[in-house]
Amino acid sequence: MGNVTGETVIGETGSSIPAGIVRKILDTLESENPAPSSEIKFEKPELYRKQKICALSGKIATKDCPATTEEFILKGQKLESCDWHKIKNGQLEVNYPDEYQRWIGSKNINAALNYQGKLRFAYPQDRSVFLFDTNMPKQKQQLRIDVTGGSEDEATLYVDSQSLGTSHRPFSWYMPVEPGTHTLVVQTKTESDRITIEVR
Q1: Which residues pair with 49 in a beta bridge?
Q2: Which of 9, 145, 157, 172 is exposed most, by the fewest CB atoms within 10 A?
Q3: pLDDT digits (tens, 9 = 90+) for 77-122
Q4: Residue 172 sits in which domain range?
C-alpha cells in the first residue's frame, strides 16, 4: 500500500498505512457485533479444502515436520509433500534448498545445512554486467561471489585462470573489480561450474 508512483507517503511509515486500515476493519466488525459471545460466521469456501501445511517449507506436512499450520488450498491442486524435514538416527534434520544456502551463510543463523544439488554460482549469474566506478578507489571495489550445492566442503575459485583462493562452506569470495570480460570457474575435486561476467 502506498503511492502507485513509489513516492514517499508524507507523515506515514510503510507499515502504518495497512496497519491503520486493518485496525479500522476490526473496530468496525467489533462495533457491529458488540456481544463477546457472538461470533461472525464466514461461509466455508466451496472450491477450497483445508490442508495441513509445513510452516517452514509451505509444502504438505509430514510426520517429521515440527511446526504445521492449516491453509485453504484449491480442490484438485497438487502440492508436494515436505522434503525439508527428515528424522535421521533419532535427530531432526532440516534440508534447506540450495537457494537458501547463500542467505543462511551470510547471517548468524545456527542452522544445520545439508548441501545438495549441483555445484553452481548463486551470485553473480552468468553474463551479468557490472559498472566500474571511476570516482571510487579501485581497492574499495569488490564483488562478492557466492556458490552453492556440491558434495564437498572445499572449493577453489579461479578468475581468468588465476586462483582467488579456497573457501570452506558456505562458499564465498570477494573479487577485485577490474574492467573487462572475466571467466569465473569454481572447482572441487569432483565438480566445477563456469560463468562469464563483464565489468564496464
Answers
A1: 73
A2: 9
A3: 888 999 989 888 888 888 877 667 666 666 555 555 556 678 999 8
A4: 114-199
Q: How far apart are CA 154 and CA 177, in angstroms?
A: 24
What pTM did the predictor assign?
A: 0.54
CB-count exposure of residue 54 (10 Å: 0-12, 13-18, 19+): buried
Give long-range contacts, CB 8 A cutoff, 24+ apart: 101-105: 101/148, 101/149, 101/170, 102/146, 102/148, 102/170, 104/170, 105/146, 105/169, 105/170, 105/172
Q: Could you report the per-residue pLDDT of 135-188, keeping only the tens digit for each?
A: 888 888 999 999 988 888 899 999 999 999 999 887 889 999 999 999 999 999
189 assigned to some structural domain: yes
Residues 125 and 180 in one domain: yes
Q: Which helix (H) or strand (E) holds 74?
A: strand 68-74
Sole residue written with cell 509433500:
81
Residues present in the chain in total: 200
